[in-house]
Amino acid sequence: MTTTSPQGRTELLRPDGSPVRVLVVDDEQSITELLSMALRYEGWQIRAAGDGAGAMQTARDFRPDAVVLDMMLPDMDGLSVLGRLRRELPDVPVLFLTAKDAVEDRIAGLTAGGDDYVTKPFSLEEVVARLRGLIRRTGAADRRSESVLVVGDLMLDEDSHEVSRGGANIHLTATEFELLRFLMRNPRRVLSKAQILDRVWSYDFGGQANVVELYISYLRRKIDAGREPMIHTRRGAGYLIKPAATTVS
Amino acid sequence: MTTTSPQGRTELLRPDGSPVRVLVVDDEQSITELLSMALRYEGWQIRAAGDGAGAMQTARDFRPDAVVLDMMLPDMDGLSVLGRLRRELPDVPVLFLTAKDAVEDRIAGLTAGGDDYVTKPFSLEEVVARLRGLIRRTGAADRRSESVLVVGDLMLDEDSHEVSRGGANIHLTATEFELLRFLMRNPRRVLSKAQILDRVWSYDFGGQANVVELYISYLRRKIDAGREPMIHTRRGAGYLIKPAATTVS
DNA sequence: TGCGTTTCTCAGGGAATTCACAGGTTCGGG
DNA sequence: CCCGAACCTGTGAATTCCCTGAGAAACGCA
Predict the structure, then answer these.
(1) Residue B172 — very low, low, confident or very high, per pLDDT cuts 50/70/90?
(2) What is the 3-state secondary structure (H, E, C) of chain A?
(3) pLDDT digits (tens, 9 = 90+) for A156-173
(4) Which of A12, A23, B70, B177 could be cross-linked to B26 through a Cys-Cys bond (beta carbons 3.0 to 4.6 Å apart)?
(5) Least confident segment among A120-129, A229-238, B136-145
(6) How far is the CA of A5 from the C1' of C25 (A)?
(7) Is A207 within 7 A of strand D by CB distance?
């Protein structure tokens, strides 16, 4: 089930209308805090744990719809936690967090069931998108919830990664795609450069803040080129996307 | 009976519309977990057992439509379990899991009745495909459910393993076939290299992730050669298959 | 056992993408 | 109207990601 808030944001809900529940397990407190903030912002209910024991405890009485699990935990390794979680919550999908170089050996096979993973350092948009995908596909939320974002005549398909405006296909790079997705998931809302940087770029990005300007410029070239512009600058505040004035929204 | 989910995936259902039920019997917990997750993802209802006694118990009150049975169990050997299963569930098809070096004739004898087997280590695509075949053939699900996948002018027959594009026959190796089947069972959806590796290669594969690139390259040579391409790369995300632009979908 | 086929590793080349930098442009307050 | 701040964008370099040829190893079958 989905509802659309007055601000135009679409939220995932469980079939009974209650908010989706997510358990976050990571031993670095900065990470659990970062994730908790971001996921709460999605309208989800979040519980966090810093080790395997706490994770099991919380899993039992919180009964989450999805779990975010770091594979490197202090007391037991991620695989043991996973095994126990599976016994306790057999149907709950897991999003693994792994170091970039650990991917090959340990994760292989784990994502097979429909689970998924992201590598550290991740971007919040990535985590949120993957989680939404997991929850959608495993039916914790209504399956009819769409994977297509629409703003005016602009369409973005999260499954096929296809973007089109007025029917014409548009090719975007990975970063452009993530940025546009973020904008489109918050239509008519001003997003500051800091917000964008925090959500779309990895949490350890140390570069210049003007990458955002650069990528907005890239997007405009591809999305707005010659057409009624949909991406707008609010000087001193940020950017927003909304249907073109002439387009029937 | 089949339904098609919004994601475009086709699900097997029982004639009364309820999900197919599968019992998984293996003493290695990692295997039952792997299989349970993968088969649940197919939309099936799964129950697992770790030994013969548990299997019998579960068979009685779960009443599965199919059974996945490891031939090496701790308390009794697979044959005894099989015998008892047969008495309890005479018409239910069984998919045997066997070690590679197991006596082929014995298995061949067992599968004469319409059962089937796969050797460990298996790929999930293989298990799922065999299981689908068994369930389809024994009529637990509607018989009209198709064994032919079609994407644009590309056709793949899961029974005969024949592949053709625009009427022209194409010879594929076993791995190429499995990869193409996985792509075609998820048309218009980006599949990451990790997902592909986890589904199409055996669970114990420890090699380089670029085998996927290699086999995509092989497939393109055979499927797309000279024609409008159907296999597309989403740089930084994965691969997807979709009807050629000029083809009526 | 021997031969053709299939699977997979390795490594080079090439192209797409990301990002820094810097000069130009626009905007809004005074 | 002027000035500084904020924003835009061309250029180019570094990097990452992907493709594919060549050959070794494993497999299957006669």
Answers:
(1) very high
(2) CEEECCCCCEEEECCCCCECEEEEECCCHHHHHHHHHHHHHCCCEEEEECCHHHHHHHHHHHCCCEEEEECCCCCCCHHHHHHHHHHHCCCCCEEEEEEHHHHHHHHCCHHHHCCEEEEECCCHHHHHHHHHHHHHHCCCCCCCCCCEEEECCEEEECCCCEEEECCEEECCCHHHHHHHHHHHCCCCCCECHHHHHHHHCCCCCCCCCCHHHHHHHHHHHHHHCCCCCCEEEECCCEEEECCCCCCCC
(3) 999 999 999 999 999 999
(4) B70
(5) B136-145
(6) 38
(7) no
